[in-house]
Amino acid sequence: MRVATFNVKHGENGAGRVDLRRLSSACAGLSADVLAIQEVDRFARRTHFRDEMRIIARATGLQATFGEAARKKWRSYGNVLLARGPITDVEVVKLPRPSGGEPRVAIVARVDVGGIGLSVGATHLSFRKGEGAAQLAVLLDALADRDGPRLLMGDLNIGPDLVVPAVTAAGYTVAPTEATFPASAPRTRIDFVAVSGLEIVGASTPTVGTSDHLPIVADLLVP
Predict the structure, then answer these.
(1) How far apart are CA 62 and CA 85, in angstroms?
(2) How far is Cα 179 from Cα 202, in angstroms, rounded to an integer?
(3) Under DSSP, is residue 30 helix (H, G, I), strand (E, B) or coil?
(4) What is the pLDDT along the chain (223 residues), one digit of tens a residue?
(5) 165 CB-near residues (< 8 Å, 6+ apart)
(6) Could you tell me the domains of the chain?
(7) For residues 177 and 174, what is the distance between their CA atoms, to the nearest angstrom?
C-alpha cells in the first residue's frame, strides 16, 4: 500500500501563479492509495472558483472527503483525505488554538483499501510556537479511540525534535525522510507520515514542480 501527504499551497506553482493542471498532475503522479492533502480551496477567487477537492479526486481516481477549517460565504478552505476505497466514520476534529491563530482541523476516518482497514488522521497544524504540539496531542488521542492499524499524515509545522518523541510514545513509527520545506531548497522537515500496526518499507520526498512543500510518499505493509 502506498500513502502520501502533500501541502499543495492551493495549487500555487512555486512562482506565485495557481496552476491547477500542474496540481492535478502532481497529485496523480504520487500513485497513492491513501492521500492527505493540505491547503485546499473550494470555490475561492484565487483558485478561479474551482473545487480543488473534486479536481484532485478526478485526477487520482480516489474517493475524497473534506475537512473544512475555514469558510467565508460560499468559499471554504481546509484539508482533503482521499483513498482507493471507502472512507467511513468521518470526524472533522477542531483543534485548539490558544493564541487565537488560524483555525486548524484534523480529519479522522476509517479507510478500507484492498481489504485492509485503517484508522487515518490527516491534518495541518499551526506554525505558532507551542500550538502545534498541543494540537498533535489532540489528534493522537482521537486516533487512540479508533481501531488499528493507524496512519497519521500531514503538514505538522513542527520539527522532528517534537514530533518523533510524541508519536513514538503513542506507539507510532515515523517514516524516515529528508527535509520537506521549502521545496526549492529544503532545510526543515515539517511534513510527516507515521504508522502504528504497519511496517514502513520505503519512503521518499519526490520533486513534483508545484507548491512550496515536497510531498512524502511511503510504502507500507501489514505485518
Answers:
(1) 7
(2) 16
(3) coil
(4) 999 999 999 998 877 889 999 999 999 999 999 999 999 999 998 988 999 999 999 999 999 999 999 998 889 999 999 999 999 999 999 999 877 778 999 999 999 998 999 999 999 999 988 899 999 999 999 999 999 899 999 999 999 999 999 999 999 999 999 999 999 999 999 999 999 999 999 999 999 999 999 999 999 998 7
(5) none
(6) 2-221 (3.60.10.10)
(7) 9
Contact status, residue 107 vs residue 79, Cβ threshold 8 Å:
yes
E strand or H helix that includes residue 53: helix 52-60
pTM of the predicted model, to two decimals?
Answer: 0.96
Helix (H), strand (E), coil (C) string for 207-220: CCCCCCCCCEEEEE
Give kind and range of the element (H or E) at residue 155. Answer: strand 150-155
Which grid coordinates belong to 88? 467511513
How far is the C-alpha of 39 from the C-alpha of 172, rounded, in Å?
A: 25
Separation of CA 145 from chain center = 20
CB 140 within 8 A of CB 167: yes
Bridge partners (DSSP) of residue 13 are: none
